[in-house]
Amino acid sequence: MLTLLLWHLWQNQTSDETSDANPNRQAALPCPLGNSIMKLDREWKWLTLLVIIRILVLVLCVGADFFLSDHEADGVEIAQVTFSSQWSQALLSPFIKWDGAHYINISVNGYKRAQHLVFLPFLPYLLKAASTLRLPFFNPIEISIIFALLWNIFASAVCLIVLRRILLDKLKYNTERVTLACYCYVFNPATIFFTTLYTESSYCMFTFCALAYLGESTLFSCLCLLFASFTRSNGAWNAIIVGGYFAQEAYRLWLNNTCKDDSHKGGWVAFFWCALQGLCAVLCSICPAILWQVVSWMRLCNGAKPLEPDYCAMCSRNRLAVHSPYSFLQGKYWSVGFLSFYQPKQLPNFLLGLPICLYALRIVYIHCKHYFKGQSMSYILMQPSLPYVLHLVVLLVTLLGWAHMQISTRVLCSASPLVYLALAEELQSEYAIRKYFVLLFLVVYGIDGAIAHVNFYPWT
């Protein structure tokens, strides 16, 4: 049914764009107010559809958890939650599985265990703050879970609005493709992670807001970058996009000869102000990651009884070497390391993350083909999409070389606007089979992902 709905939306959008392009169609009188109302009406339709989809996913999770038995997964964190009633347990327990259990346990007990330090503090502290609210029939932990679910819906709605702004206003793609990309976000292949107690929706909101307002409100963008980097560890990679954006702006000033002549004082001021903004934005992306490494080291090794004696001994043996607590903990508790994922038993997980990586690789190829098609180096360097492409390439290299492949879908969907553009590109293909595969991908990952996740199947 969802596949048919997606196909219907795509056909309607195509017919609308065709009618807009019809030369025999009577031209409407220019009306800025009317255009604004139409744009607002379209966004409200998208937001309404998004909220409906998220609510359906919540219902699906509760039903799947109630009617299907859990898979016996090994080494899984169990949420330490005491529910006030059986019905509240039935309604809320599906949303604190896998990483959600870690976040809820940290919000209750703090960072008492070493492996918890790989989970950055934004969501746990948000849950802790929400637990101070009061609602009848619910205890503080249940209130924090409800708040997190509502927060994720709100964050997803904000992401949808700013995604359109990034693709249309910043990257200058055509309206039809941007509209399809927004629909692909609504029917997100990582919907379960944007809905339950994961950080994807928060990280996506902070990242996309920062990118949407680069150059217009640098202070707001820097604050969003700070929050993004305190939400997920890959927030540091946002420095590639923001650094690239301000480097392009500085290069544009240079090309316009605003800083080549000493008599142009304003040109020098504009150039250095642009460089300063870029430096601040890059630092806001990187510094939280460095700060959390320091905090993690202090948690692991300070005190009479270190949490990780092996790590502390390794640091003591070679004080000049830099030993990342995050990398150490990921390697010890999740077997994360360079090419460590490539084992025969990991083939199902590899296939799980393969589709989104292929779509991402294709959009990178399309952009590179456009960049190097007889164009000058200045033209290539000034392409607005270039920092986004470089960012996506770094994410792909990290995922394919170091991470667990099955997390690729949620990582890429929460970090890169180009992923949705890649799906929209496929929906505009002249081959019906490619359109069908995209629709099938969105529906299967949306529905099966929710069912598998809440029943402890490895959909993480």
Short description:
Helices cover 69% and strands 0% of the residues.
Main sheet summary: none
- For the record, the count of structural domains works out to 1
Q: What percent of the residues sit in helical stretches (DSSP H or I)?
A: 55-70%
| Beta fraction | under 5%
Rounded to the nearest angstrom, the radius of gyration is 24 Å
How many distinct helices? 20
Structural class: mainly alpha
- First and last CA, distance: 25 Å
Count of individual beta strands: 0
Shape descriptor reads globular
What is the ordering of alpha helices and beta strands?
HHHHHHHHHHHHHHHHHHHH
Which regions are unreliable across 5 or more consecutive residues at pLDDT < 50? 1-38
Describe, in plain words, how this protein is organized in 3D.
The structure is a single chain. The protein has 460 residues and is mostly helical. The protein has one domain. It contains 20 helices and no strands. Helix 4 packs across helix 5, helix 7 (175-186) packs across helix 19 (418-427) and helix 11 packs antiparallel against helix 12 (265-301). The radius of gyration is 24 Å and the shape is globular.
